[in-house]
């Protein structure tokens, strides 16, 4: 896919750049960039979309996104526990420039880790919290101490390379024009912003100036799923967040809050996507917590 191309701030001849997010929301446009991205969520809950899949995220999560992997972070704006701005630290790594270090024998473990970064990953929470200091130190250190901190982070990621969950969606790589990429980004953003409202294919098609028939073919061609399937996945992901965070006392209320008008239909779609009923999902995650 070729969504909006994001250009990382200039970082001279260096191999990495650090960016701190402290604002109302993340850069919630479906985008990609040439650099690998390592993100630590210090504060905020929401949904990450990587390629063709969606997952919830929360404070303490670490994501490693491979170069040119289309992705988008979107904050849960209705989360009353996370008042104020989100806070995240992103590290962008130029893998092409990193090759200058590959000939160093002591760098072999990190080199293998970077060369084998074939899918984006989410670190297990059992190890992610122990890595926070690398990110915060990178925000305050300069020069050589900052570079050694960066190398220490890469080494820690390499050591824990098996303590991850893959974010591979199984979708083939598809290249298309910037115009089509911008359209996909518009559709995704509109859906995330209005998932709890009545949304029709006709509405979404008009946003990208297409007929409903042309839009349905366009969306299926670039995402391998229908728009309604995608909309249902977004809504179920939001419903899961509502149920886990106990924002609703009743399953029916969670269904309505996430955009469904019919509880029976909600239960059917929920089970189809999560492979379990809402009640079983609540029970399972209550045990996990």
Give an overview of the whole structure.
The mean pLDDT is 87. The protein has a 6-stranded antiparallel sheet. The chain has a 3-stranded antiparallel sheet with strand order 6-5-8, covered by helices on one side. It has a two-stranded parallel ribbon with strand order 1-3. It folds into 2 domains: 4-166, Regulatory protein AraC (Jelly Rolls), CATH 2.60.120; 195-288, Homeodomain-like (Arc Repressor Mutant, subunit A). The protein is α+β, with helices and mostly antiparallel strands and 289 residues long. Strand 5 (46-50) and strand 6 form a beta hairpin. It is 44% helix and 18% strand. The protein has 12 helices and 11 strands. It is globular. The chain has helices at 95-98, 108-115, 125-128, 132-140, 143-159, 178-194, 201-207, 212-223, 227-244, 251-257, 263-274, 278-288; strands spanning 4-5, 16-23, 31-32, 36-43, 46-50, 53-57, 62-65, 71-75, 86-93, 121-123, 164-166. Helix 2 packs across helix 5, helix 4 packs antiparallel against helix 5 and helix 7 (201-207) packs across helix 8. The two termini are 36 Å apart. The longest helix has 18 residues, at 227-244.
């Amino acid at each position: 896919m070729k969504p909006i191309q994001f250009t990382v701030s200039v970082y001279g001849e260096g191999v990495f750049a650090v960016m701190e997010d402290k604002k109302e929301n993340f850069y919630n446009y479906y985008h990609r960039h040439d650099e690998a991205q390592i993100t630590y969520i210090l504060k905020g809950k929401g949904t990450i979309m990587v390629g063709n899949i969606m997952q919830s995220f929360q404070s303490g999560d670490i994501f490693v996104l491979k170069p040119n992997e289309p992705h988008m972070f979107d904050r849960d704006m209705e989360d009353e526990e996370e008042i104020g701005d989100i806070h995240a630290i992103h590290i962008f790594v130029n893998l092409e420039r990193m090759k200058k270090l590959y000939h160093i024998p002591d760098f072999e473990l990190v080199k293998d880790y970077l060369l084998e970064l074939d899918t984006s990953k989410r670190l297990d929470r059992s190890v992610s919290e122990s890595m926070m200091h690398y990110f915060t130190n990178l925000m305050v250190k300069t020069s050589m101490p900052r570079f050694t901190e960066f190398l220490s982070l890469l080494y820690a990621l390499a050591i824990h390379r098996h303590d991850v969950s893959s974010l591979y969606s199984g979708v083939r790589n598809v290249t298309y024009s910037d115009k089509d990429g911008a359209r996909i980004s518009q559709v995704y953003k509109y859906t995330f912003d209005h998932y709890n409202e009545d949304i029709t294919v006709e509405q979404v098609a008009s946003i990208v100036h297409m007929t409903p028939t042309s839009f349905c073919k366009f969306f299926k061609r670039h995402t391998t799923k229908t728009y309604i399937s995608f909309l249902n996945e977004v809504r179920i992901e939001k419903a899961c967040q509502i149920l886990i965070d106990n924002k609703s006392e009743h399953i029916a209320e969670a269904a309505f809050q996430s955009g469904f008008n019919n509880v029976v239909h909600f239960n059917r779609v929920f089970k189809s996507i999560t492979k379990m009923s809402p009640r079983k999902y609540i029970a399972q995650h209550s045990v996990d917590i």
